[in-house]
Amino acid sequence: MGIVQEHHHDSKAAAQSYFRVLELQPRNKFAWYNLGHLAQQEGKTPGARAAYEQALQIDPSFAPALFNEALLLEAAEPDGAAELLQRAIAVNPKAGTAHLHLGRVWARTNRAGKAKDEFRLAVAADHSLRSQVPEEFRDSADPSSPSSEAGSDS
Questions:
Q1: DSSP string across 42-72
Q2: Under 8 Å CB-to-CB from 131, ≥6 apart: which residues?
Q3: What span, in angstroms and rounded, lies between the C-alpha atoms of 75 and 115?
Q4: At what angle do helices 11-24 and 29-41 cross, to 10 degrees?
Q5: Per-residue pLDDT in tens (0 to 9) along the chain, 154 residues
Q6: Distance in angstroms (rounded) separating the CA atoms of residues 64 and 78
Q7: Nearest-angstrom CA–CA distance, 114 and 16
Q8: How wide is the angle at C-alpha 85 spanned by C-alphas 80 and 88, nearest 5°?
């Protein structure tokens, strides 16, 4: 019901539905995740993080919660975002969007070698992501280009 309510842009009713689910099933990671998603859409970062953390306490490898929480942290806490994205990638190594965002984190934190590697993996997983790679890394994002030096932060 909550998903239908979300689809109809009734976030208040959707949240109530998810809370009803949690009354019956307090360890329902999907209800926690959906509450986090609602809060994130409304710009309620602390509430979103708390809900994602609840989902991750239930299932530490729940990739959607890992990814969305990483997006919340990307600008303010890049190291925390990187850790969450790496965990999401460990669950699904072909998660192109997770590689793309991890590349952005590395680029913003002056780890160009790691950024190039992540952008290459992102484009290899989903070629349509190439247009989202920052321009200065776009040529090196071609999956056929030589790999950057392992462990390089340059």
A1: TT-HHHHHHHHHHHHHH-TT-HHHHHHHHHH
A2: none
A3: 16
A4: 160
A5: 888 888 888 999 999 999 999 999 999 999 999 999 999 999 999 999 999 999 999 999 999 999 999 999 999 999 999 999 999 999 999 999 999 999 999 999 999 999 999 999 999 999 999 999 999 999 888 766 554 444 444 4
A6: 18
A7: 42
A8: 130
| Token pair in block for residue 7 | 């689809």
Per DSSP, the three-state class of 148 is: coil
pLDDT given for residue 146 in this prediction: 56
Cα dihedral sign for 88, 89, 92, 94?
positive
Torsions phi, psi for 73 (to 5 deg): -95, -15
pLDDT number for residue 145: 56
Rg (CA), the chain: 17
Asked if 55 and 65 count as a contact pair (C-beta separation under 8 A), the reply is yes
